[in-house]
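During the second year of the project, the team shifted from modelling isolated chains to modelling whole assemblies. The rationale, set out in the original proposal, was that interfaces cannot be judged from single-chain predictions alone. As a representative example for this report, we include one of the complexes processed in the last quarter. Its constituent sequences, exactly as entered into the pipeline, are reproduced here:
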Amino acid sequence: MEFFSQNLLTILLLLPVFGAVGIVLHQMFWKQEEQLKWLTFGITLVNFVISIPLIFGTKTAGFSFEVNKVWIAAINSNYHIAVDGLSLWLVILTTFIMPIAVLSTWNAVEKRPTAFYAFLLLLEAAMIGVFVSLDLLVFYLFFEASLVPMFFLIGIWGGENRIYAAVKFFIFTALGSLLMLAAIIGLYYMHAEQTGIGTFDFVTMMRSLELGQLAIAGTAGTLMFWAFALAFSIKVPLFPFHTWLPDAHTEAPTAGSVILAAVLLKMGTYGLMRFNFALFPDQSREWAWLFIVLAIVGIIYGALVAMVQPDVKRLVAYSSVAHMGFVILGMFSFTEWGMQGALYQMLNHGVSTGALFLLVGFIYERRHTRAISDFGGLANVMPLYATIFVITAMSSVGLPFLNGFVGEFLIMLGMWKSTILGVTATTNWNYVATMLAGTGVIFAAVYLLWMIQRVFFGKVTNDKNKKLTDLSTREIGLIAPLMFLMVFMGVYPRPFLDAAKDSVNAIQKRVMHQAGGDVDHAERNADLSPQTAVKDAN
Amino acid sequence: MIENNLLSIIIFAPLAGAVINWLIGGRLKNELFSSVVACGSIAVSALVAFYIAFVADGGALFINKPILDQIWTWINVGGFRADFALGMDRLSGIYACFVTFIGLLIHIFATGYMHGDSGFYRFFAYLNLFMFAMLTLVLADNYLLMFVGWEGVGLCSYLLIGYYIKKDEARKAAKKAFVMNRIGDWGVLMGIFLVFTLTGSISFFDKTVGGEQVTSVFTYVVNTMSADPFTWGAIVAGGLTSIGVLMFIGATGKSAQIPLLTWLPDAMAGPTPVSALIHAATMVTAGVYLVVRSNAIYQFAPTAMWIIAVIGAATALFAATIAIAQNDIKKVLAYSTVSQLGFMFLAAGVGAFVVAIFHVMTHAFFKALLFLGSGSVIHGMHHEQDMRKMGNLRKYMPITFITMAAGWLAICGIPIFAGFFSKDEILYKTFAADNYFPGGLKFPGEEILWGVATVTAILTAIYMTRMMVMTFWGKERFHDALPGEEHHDDHHADDAHHADAHADDDEEEHHHALPHDFKPHESPWVMTVPLIVLAVLSTFGGLVGVPYAMSSIFGAGDVNAFEHTLDPVIAEKGEHGTSEIKEVKHFFASAAKPEAGAAPAHDSHSPEVLFKERVLAALSTVLALVGIGIGFLLFYKTPLRTMPKILEEKWRLDEFYNGYIVDPITKLSTVGLWKGFDIGFIDGIVNGIGHAVAEFGNVARRLQVGFVRSYAAMILLGALAVVGYFIYYGLKLVG
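Output from the structure prediction step:
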């Protein structure tokens, strides 16, 4: 048992890898293609089950389930993995969404199922690896490794325009991550230069920073900040790096879209929070305004463009741009509310946008089209599907008591109370930012309800839609857990927020406390209750 | 602090009803089962609401402390605390009672009205869900939970407007309602942020939760803040006035005020009981509730109050002018509702918060009655809503006629009827706004507002009389063709159509061309009994709030029970303009009435004031009678009199919004952002780079075919970047 708990993360990482090898071998020896999906489903389900102890075993502060073993001694790179409040829920989200994604492919894989399922499993390992790695080199490897399976998933099993989408996806993300690699190596040398020991270890770097042995400043610091930030911003994607997303989403098979939306995008926001904020707090503060501006532009831009999309999947993809804009906004508000809200919104987006892509997949499997104009009046023939779609859309719109609201509310509250933009004599820029971002909530209602109106309401106008069948048991089974989470996370967010609180607050404090002459200011806003703060201000 | 866990039953009973109807009712498809579940759950809710309001712990309406029920802590992050907790004080007590009571009546009515509809269970599940949301809104003990209810009623309204999903106008109206409400919700949300920023709390009541002391927003405002100046600048200063304006933006959305009013008339595409419950009696008055609930804030925000009064009066007049030219019976009532809501905001804006709530209540009685009456008419007319095809219905539907007549006289403001007292007080208090406006400030333009309100009152009498005349008097026009409508003379076709109509009853689209032998019929008792109850309330319900100026005529003394009940809800404040707050009294601080000496020089019982009020009351009665007279004069002989086109077309406001807001945004998004920026600009750059790299890769290493070479090229490029960086960094170290 002790072995199990000590190596829990390693098991989570290796099980899908061995699983991938296993199904390849299985196919080589037994040639039972029908069994592959069952095997893959089983492996991902087991992985989810064994990830559950993480929820109960993760301490509120510091790292848990830590493993730190020498990997490449020559360059001092270690196999250093652990979870804390920041990564815990993202790991769980990954293991949770995988069985659902596999189940969604049940009848959809028309060619080369062995490779398909092997790629899915490798992808899971890579994604978990990204969230648990504390060695920058290992992190980079996982970050890149997650790219490859997705590249093939889109490029081989995607829609008509799959090659273009896959290459675009690759160019964007690879460009960013190569810059990050440069910065990681730069950090290694910087550490070596200032402390005498080169390291890729994030925890060691943090300690050096705290002890004052390491200072990441100057042009090199800014360049490295931007190298990391660019890699992550492209992944998020932050406006204006978002144009790979609609293509990738639209062309990817359903499972690919679900994973892409639910987990892959979160690697970007997670990376910003974990590495950019911790390693480059000064630069993060300095450039926060730019990220806030881009986030707000993304929120409004994504919503406006989503509104006019003729393709349901592309519409959902653009809505992702808007939603991820909210996450960025919350993070860069550098307030407790904003950052916790951002983390929560990452999970919410995973659940509700994941669900939306699943739902789009259901109808695509039936009709092999996603054009809004091909539908109309679906609520008459598929009432259950329509109901679930409306609820999911409401969660995405941010209706209270569904999950999206809590995240968006905390993010906007955080931005409202943020001090990062500064207050001039005439204008509270943080108020302006929040008010602009808030319009995204209005637009969200516009584009989703307009789409629902055209797809589900009215009479059935297209004869091909008259004989559509409502959801099957399998489909209900795979959407049901997501529906449950939407409601649960909406009415009782505290277990999620409480588990993440200390880790997130530590990052928030780190960014705001190294504010040089601004320390007092930052401290006051972070520590005091608003009532006292108001009195002080008066 | 008084706790009573029964409170949660008020909201959870309807929720349980909704869930049962959805899960079990959907399988049984039994109308009796669905009716019993739906009406039963509301009956439970109503019983508990009345019990807590009048009996338990001394009765929430009589004691000066709220009755609270902490259910769980919803959000608690960094000092921001939002409980899922309910509280019933005098204000929410009155609301809870009339919402559950009228809700029950309308539920019962609907069991008759929706009879035979294939989505019967679904309708009642939505309706119960609405009651859950509405009661959450009213009973919430903090702004955020109120906002939950606020959005929840918006959702239910969306679902119920779009209930007839096959009707094109229904789905469009549903979306429009939700979006316009959302625009308003933005204001509420920003208002909540500002409330929290300024006061550190979002709670309505002082309370202790788990040993933690929670101070109410209003206590904090009243005790520690001073009034904002009466200037335009206060709106954007980020103080209490800003909160007031932001919250009012929300109210304009929910309560259909200028500029967000166009959704409400469209919302009439929903079933008529929905119009009565949601779009007349309860949900649309949520904006008034929000303003009155926040009165402590508004009293420190004179600019915001002035804006509310002006918008209210303007909306009242604007909607009344449209109502006069509509031919759809429900559209008349819808615009009338918008207009009456304007009256309520006018009252709140001049500082007469209690009167605003009084009018909310009387309006709930008579407007629910009128809507249900119109529903009964529509039901009897086989889903014909056009008044041009009615006439002389009093012969066929006597109960509907008599009950609706009570509502008609009530809304016109004929003495004794409920609407008279509330409307008259609004007019009087607008006239005397200086005395009620906070901070002892002079209210600019009170005479104009009073004039507008008076004209509106006359218009109200005219358009309501027109509606009654067209519907119940004159000759029968059931078979007349309308201009532009083909006259159906083919007997067989009519019969076929009629049979069709019964087969496909969830469509409400079969109202053209009634059969030759068609006779309207009176509705069944489940529909007429609620009408009768509401008629009684519309007739006598106003007597709970008879102002002193009138009761004293009959030597009855001060019998204004309504005002006395709500008085403690209105925050007492210090004098405006002094940095030092004197004589601060929290509205729940003590049971004792505030000292008379603290009140301004205005004495509401002085002979001159009483005289003025009585004269005005007499005047408005005369004007109401004149209005009714004009109505009969104009429309009795010629019910189909042509009305001004611009009024019939609703001042073309929808066209304006579409042409100048919706279309440009859509065009900008399609052409400018999507096709222009995304595909043209960004993708152009990226594809350019991609091609260049591909070429580069080609030259550098003639590798495999396909897209793998781009991969290789990228790695090469990346490696070069890395090397370049090292060289740069190494050089810097050396140098």
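The first strand of chain A starts at residue 64 and ends at 72. Strands of chain A lie at 64-72, 77-83.
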